[in-house]
């Protein structure tokens, strides 16, 4: 766990200075961390913040992420407020942000519609508000499908589906919009973890979130959530991009240890069976 005073702050706000001045009064509480970084809750009296340290294999550009978050926050999108970034003693990138509650766990139809509207607002964000240096655009398959060359069945199919999708990379996308990256406190939502924020196709962003809700919550709620986007996109478009997104889950399941409940695989099999672009032999 990093000490605030041991960080080489490249950009710091008054909040960082206040924490440094009161370093002996800080309360540090480890939070659930993902595969990429260590996360700590930092509290000074009644004010709390989040310190994220990328001390694992993932090494994203945190200076860029800081600038993106600041722009989105200043323009009114529901993201964490960034207070500073720097490097720890091992040269791992560090980001200090506002504390915005806990991940969404309880779901209902009204909440799903609200979350769909937030995702749509991200896709509608005017790109002229962003610096040119924040316009990340990646090769879609290489970026989202790590080690796919070793899985020929998925590789051939994903190339076919991407070819017919007429994919566009002209909107801001989150890249990993899921309930674990949506915080809730007193009825307010905050979208976190912008490591995969980039120029992309909103249909993929939407499809990935639909697939994860269908797998980890229920097919019924996946259907409810999907319906919120059908005024913008056709059922056929969404189904195609859900196939593309589901293939990513299948690939990740082969190369990593994903969270699974007793119904997880059955739900994935159901998606594979009912999507016209997929088949059950993939899992």
Automatic annotation (TrEMBL):
Domain Aminoglycoside phosphotransferase: 29-233
Gene3D superfamilies: 3.90.1200.10
Ribosomal protein recorded as keyword: no
Statement: the UniProt record of this protein carries the keyword Oxidoreductase: no
MF GO annotations: transferase activity
Keywords assigned by UniProt, alphabetized: Transferase
Protein name: Aminoglycoside phosphotransferase
């Amino acid at each position: 766990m990093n000490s605030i005073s041991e960080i080489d702050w490249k950009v710091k706000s008054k909040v960082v200075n206040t924490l440094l001045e009161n370093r002996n009064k800080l309360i540090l509480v480890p939070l659930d961390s993902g595969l990429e970084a260590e996360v700590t809750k930092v509290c000074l009296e009644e004010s709390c913040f989040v310190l994220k340290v990328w001390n694992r294999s993932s090494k994203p550009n945190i200076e860029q992420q800081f600038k993106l978050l600041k722009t989105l926050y200043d323009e009114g999108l529901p993201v964490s407020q960034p207070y500073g970034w720097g490097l720890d003693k091992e040269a791992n990138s560090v980001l200090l942000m506002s504390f915005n509650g806990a991940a969404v766990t309880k779901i209902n139809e009204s909440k799903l519609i609200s979350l769909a509207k937030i995702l749509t607002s991200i896709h509608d964000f005017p790109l002229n508000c962003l610096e040119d240096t924040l316009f990340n655009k990646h090769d879609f398959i290489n970026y989202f499908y790590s080690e796919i060359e070793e899985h020929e069945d998925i590789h051939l199919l994903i190339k076919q589906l991407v070819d017919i999708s007429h994919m566009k990379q002209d909107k801001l996308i989150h890249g990993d919009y899921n309930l674990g990256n949506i915080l809730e406190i007193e009825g307010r939502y905050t979208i976190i973890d912008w490591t995969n924020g980039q120029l992309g196709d909103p249909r993929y962003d939407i499809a990935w979130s639909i697939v994860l809700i269908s797998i980890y919550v229920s097919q019924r709620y996946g259907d409810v959530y999907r319906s919120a986007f059908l005024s913008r996109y056709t059922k056929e478009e969404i189904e195609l991009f859900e196939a593309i997104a589901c293939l990513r889950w299948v690939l990740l399941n082969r190369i990593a240890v994903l969270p699974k409940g007793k119904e997880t695989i059955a739900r994935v099999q159901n998606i594979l069976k009912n999507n016209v672009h997929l088949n059950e032999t993939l899992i």
